[in-house]
């Protein structure tokens, strides 16, 4: 019997359990049975989580399969990068999971391993790097550049001409003011934008900003 590909949602916590139904639906539309979809987690747990098998990473690698694919359901961009490197070393391919009602408009370039949750919109002339997470109701407007391992919590409003550098975390309900052509608003590498913050000017790498208008925390 010919072996089939095996797909994983890596992480069985709240993030992973929110992604699993999207992954299951996406595979069903492609004719892949739900039995070829599993959770992978480094922590011990029950045999089944929300109806899907739970495996350790070692079990995932040892399961007979033609190929292995994983979407990384971890909110921390730093942890996602470490897991991405681990998977790449073991021949596990990145997998993008996209809700059925996501809107992508013109000239959108999306890196491998993304998660686009329900009601996400990517408009026009957008560049997004690897392993991007866009949670419920988030949007990325025109002429934005988003780096690798960036996380948008629910309802992030990323307006036009914004640059979000690698590993930035944008909290729930945050608003990033529109920049200007040739003079974008920049969220620096590893910066954190707090929940509900209204960002009206660029944020330095590694900084944490909160409030309306957003100010440096502390």
Automatic annotation (TrEMBL):
Matching PANTHER family: ACETYLTRANSFERASE (PTHR43300), UDP-N-ACETYLBACILLOSAMINE N-ACETYLTRANSFERASE (PTHR43300:SF7)
Coiled-coil regions listed: none
Residues of the active site: 142
Stored Gene3D superfamilies: 3.40.50.20, Hexapeptide repeat proteins
A GO term, aspect molecular function: transferase activity
Family: Belongs to the transferase hexapeptide repeat family.
Organism: Simplicispira suum
CDD domains reported in the protein's UniProt record: LbH_AT_putative
Site keyed Increases basicity of active site His: positions: 143
Stored InterPro entries: AcTrfase_PglD-like, Trans_hexapeptide_repeat, Trimer_LpxA-like_sf
UniProt keyword annotations, A-Z: Transferase
This protein's name: Acetyltransferase
Top-level taxon: Bacteria
């Amino acid at each position: 019997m010919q072996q089939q590909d095996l797909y994983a949602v890596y992480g069985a916590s709240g993030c992973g359990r929110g992604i699993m139904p999207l992954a299951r639906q996406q595979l069903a539309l492609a004719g892949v049975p739900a039995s070829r979809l599993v959770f992978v987690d480094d922590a011990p747990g029950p045999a089944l989580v929300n109806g899907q098998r739970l495996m350790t990473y070692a079990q995932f690698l040892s399961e007979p399969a033609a190929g292995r694919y994983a979407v990384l359901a971890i909110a921390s961009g730093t942890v996602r990068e470490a897991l991405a490197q681990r998977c790449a070393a073991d021949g596990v391919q990145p997998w993008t999971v996209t809700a059925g009602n996501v809107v992508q408009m013109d000239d959108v370039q999306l890196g491998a391993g993304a998660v686009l949750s329900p009601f996400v919109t990517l408009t026009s002339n957008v560049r997004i790097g690897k392993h991007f997470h866009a949670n419920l109701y988030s949007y990325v407007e025109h002429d934005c550049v988003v780096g690798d391992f960036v996380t948008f919590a629910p309802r992030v409003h990323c307006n036009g001409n914004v640059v979000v550098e690698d590993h930035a975390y944008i909290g729930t309900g945050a608003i990033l003011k529109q920049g200007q052509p040739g003079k974008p608003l920049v969220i620096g590498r590893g910066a954190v934008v707090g929940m509900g913050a209204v960002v009206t000017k660029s944020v330095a790498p590694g900084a944490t900003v909160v409030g309306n208008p957003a100010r440096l925390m502390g």
